[in-house]
Specification:
Elements: H1 20-44, H2 52-57, H3 60-75, E1 78-82, E2 89-94, E3 101-109, E4 113-117, E5 130-139, E6 145-155
Antiparallel strand pairs: 1-4, 2-3, 3-5, 5-6
């Protein structure tokens, strides 16, 4: 799994009560968050730090977290197996922020994932588990939503 990284500070803007518009933004942000995880899991099976879908769903600090993790896996001759189980919840919607941003908190279950040596030789992986995650997803000028900050804590944090 990607290493922990501090989340980028959110743009100052008071959260607003849910509205149909903020509900749509929250749903779109959750789609981008889930897409980020699908891209990471797929990229970890190769591993490929330049996997195109990573940049489709992430940018900035969030993209760096995943690229750094995948680069380390590639360097060490490791590949990912298994899949994560997500439980994301929107914690804040800031439709008037610049850029509009949605904050997400998750308890990611990585217990069914593991790293293995690409060449089949033994590798002692740290067991996965339930890990607290926080992400910020922002709407870019072109209208797409991307995860812009991401932090994953160690197993047992949720």
């Amino acid at each position: 799994m990607p290493s922990s990284a501090p989340a980028a500070p959110a743009t100052s803007s008071a959260p607003t009560p849910p509205t149909p518009s903020s509900g749509a933004q929250a749903a779109t942000a959750l789609d981008a968050y889930r897409g980020m995880w699908r891209a990471y899991v797929g990229a970890s099976r190769i591993p490929d730090p330049q996997h195109a879908d990573l940049a489709r769903y992430t940018q900035g600090d969030a993209l760096k977290v995943f690229v750094d993790g995948l680069t380390s896996m590639q360097r060490d001759g490791l590949v990912g197996q298994g899949d994560v189980t997500l439980h994301p919840k929107v914690t804040t919607v800031r439709p008037n922020a610049s850029p509009p941003t949605v904050d997400i908190k998750d308890c990611v279950d990585t217990s069914k994932t593991r790293l293995v040596k690409k060449d089949g030789s033994p590798y002692k992986d740290t067991p996965g588990g339930r890990q607290s995650a926080k992400a910020s997803v922002s709407r870019l000028d072109d209208g797409t939503w991307k995860v812009t900050s991401f932090a994953l804590q160690s197993a047992g944090t949720c």
